Amino acid sequence: MADVDFSKLCNTDENVTTDENAKLQAENAKLQAKNAKLKAENEKTEIKVLTQLLQEQAKEKSFSVECFKNNDNLFRFYTGLQDYKTFKTLLDAFMPAAKSLVYYGSNTDADRLVSGKVEKCGPKRSLSLEQEFFLVLVRLWPGLLEVDLATRAGLSQSQLSRIFITWIDFLHSKMRCYPIWPTYSNYKHHNTAKGLVGITPSAAVTFVSDLYAGSDFLLLIIFPKTDAVTLFDRSAYQ
Questions:
Q1: 3-state DSSP call for residue 3?
Q2: In angstroms, how far apart are the furthest CA atoms of the chain?
Q3: How many CB atoms lie within 10 A of CB 134?
Q4: 143 — phi, psi (to 5°)?
Q5: Distance (Å) of CA 209 to CA 82, 177, 198
Q6: What is the pLDDT of residue 174?
Q7: b/e per residue, 21-51, with b = 16+ CB within 10 A?
Q8: Sign of the torsion formed by the C-alpha atoms of 95, 99, 103 and 106
Q9: Could you report the per-residue pLDDT of 53-80, keeping only the tens digit for each?
């Protein structure tokens, strides 16, 4: 009967066990690293969601367009516009040039803004275009002072001043060619613009002129069968 070297068998078993332990430890280390990575990603996601939630809550509580967009009465009170839909339509009409505003203090040139080809310089915009336009309207319509409006909006007075001056230059460059500036009418008790409308005897509208500023109006009626012309002034309709 041959002799068996049990010491070699024991050594072999020990080597196998050591290799398996090493593999298990390596796999465990990988799993721990993967778990730590997933945990970090999950924490980042939770922080991002929480930050967005806090930002939304802050918008709802701050003096912003978000606070009043669903309240037509307050929106009209602060902006002079009928509702948020009118506000959005007007703002959209200024795109894409408004996205490239060159803010006061960084070589603002109103004429360059008309083309909409100027790229915005300087730091990233801290407010949305909606919020900036809203603050400008609030400054113009109810006439809130800069210090008051800046405090409500969480800005410094200098920040608000730069935004306001920039937008006024921009709005002037976009709208100066249109003779649409209204005149207050004592008869209508609000701002008005006047135009000429042509109507046939069958009540079909044949002509509509551009609008012009003015506080009074005249009504010109032509009777085609008799070539008679009748001129009515405002008092005929009071």
A1: coil
A2: 145
A3: 27
A4: 75, 35
A5: 24, 16, 9
A6: 84
A7: eeeeeeeeeeeeeeeeeeeeeeeeeeeeeee
A8: negative
A9: 766 655 555 789 999 999 999 999 999 9
Residue 191 corresponds to which tokens in the numbers above? 């701002």
- What are the tens digits of pLDDT across the range 149-196? 999 998 999 999 999 999 999 988 888 766 555 666 666 677 777 777
Tell me how many degrees the CA angle 208-211-216 measures, rounded to the nearest 5: 105
CA distance 238 to 229: 21
Sign of CA dihedral 37, 43, 49, 51: negative
- In the predicted structure, residue 216 carries a pLDDT above the cut 70: no
Residue 84: pLDDT over 50: yes
The amino acid sitting at 68 is F
CA-CA distance, 219 to 235, in Å (whole number)? 11
Which residues share a beta bridge with 185?
190
DSSP states of 148-204 as a string?
HHHHHHT--HHHHHHHHHHHHHHHHHHHTTS----EEETTTTEEE-B--EEE-TTS-
Is the preceding omega at residue 96 within 30 degrees of 0, hence cis? Answer: yes
Write the CB contacts of 53 (distance below 8 Å, at least 6 apart in sequence): none
pLDDT at residue 46, rounded to an integer: 79
Residue written as tokens 């606070």? 67
User: Which residues make Cβ contacts (< 8 Å) with residue 217, sequence separation at least 6?
Assistant: 194, 234
